[in-house]
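Q: Joint fold for the lines below.
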Amino acid sequence: MTVELDVNGEVHTLDVPALTPLLDVLRESLGLVGAKRGCGHGQCGACTVLVDGRRVLSCLQLAATVDGAVRTIEGLGEPDALHPLQQAFIDEDAFQCGYCTPGQIMSGVALIASGEATDDATIREAMSGNLCRCGAYPGICRAIARVAQETP
Amino acid sequence: GSTGTYSNGSAIFDAADQLRRQLLRAARALRGRPLERFGVNDVRLADGALVASDGTSVPLRSILGAHPDRQFEGRGITGRTFGYSRSQARGSFGAVFVEVSVEPVTLAVRVERVVGAYACGRIVEPMIARSQLTGALIWGVGQALCEESRIDGRTGAWVNDEIGEALIPTHADVRRVEAHFVEETDPGNAARGMKGLGEIGIVGTAAAVANAFFDATGRRVRRTPMTIEHRLAAPVDPQWAATRTGGAA
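A: Joint structure:
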């Protein structure tokens, strides 16, 4: 079926099978491989992208039912002008292998924008949908806390 | 890392040593024979020059310019620093402490604080090294509390082969995790003082969690993960109860 998607500000019209998850469209049809298939059934958060600013598990979201503008890690910042959270991830060493990192960052961006990144315990709880096997959690939370503080 | 830094790092040092040696020898052939009285360990490469310990500096441009047809190349072979020493310990060492809080009725465990201190030789990049240690400490918490691979006894099939059932620690499971470096120099270390540290954070951490749980409850659990049925099944040690005022759970 025909699907129209606004991804990172660009509108795409695609012909995909009806049950295609958004994750597959992003990775296979649009070449946006930042979002990762960590588990394929919504348990790890590595596929997290934003739809109208909301966190969405793109492995479970059918492309045909997306109702808003999609933003992926590729749509965040530029190589020479990083988003503050991207820079904070570097400064706080908030990643090791990097596999969960796009999902962590997109999740963190939405959390900060919601105004709920108020204290460490709340940040940890709200980010628990994004698993990190390398155990970079302390750095991730430091990065989010720092940017949340600096965000008006 | 586990072995990458010290094995590749040693090869890089070897290659750099050879390069310095070649450049030094070539420099001595220049007019005025600069650096003649210096050995390879008294000079270093810096800012495009060969610089001696007294500050004498010979630009690489001059050395290379005097030998236009020559190539200077150092080669290091990785893996030469593996192998065992009979006379010296070459591993990293550490100690880990865990603080837990336990709900007295349900025996739900929260790991409040994990603190490890490690002697890992020469730390090449402290930020990355610390992250490896804290990451491994988090693995230890997972080993203690939730991680296991379950096999069906009759078929040999993996029973919990998805992330929703093969549990690993989440953000909320980890509060304060700290890793501290204990400085040490290791003169006999063939890897220029570098050691592997990618794994040591997990070593003993599950035991520390179990010990903390015992300290809190008097219940000795001797298997990992210490899941709720095992925590509940462990009897309260009467000696532990006797040392506590206010009674046990």
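Q: Anything notable?
A: Chain B touches chain A through 22 residues (CB under 8 Å). Helices of chain B lie at 4-28, 60-66, 126-145, 205-217, 228-233, 238-242.
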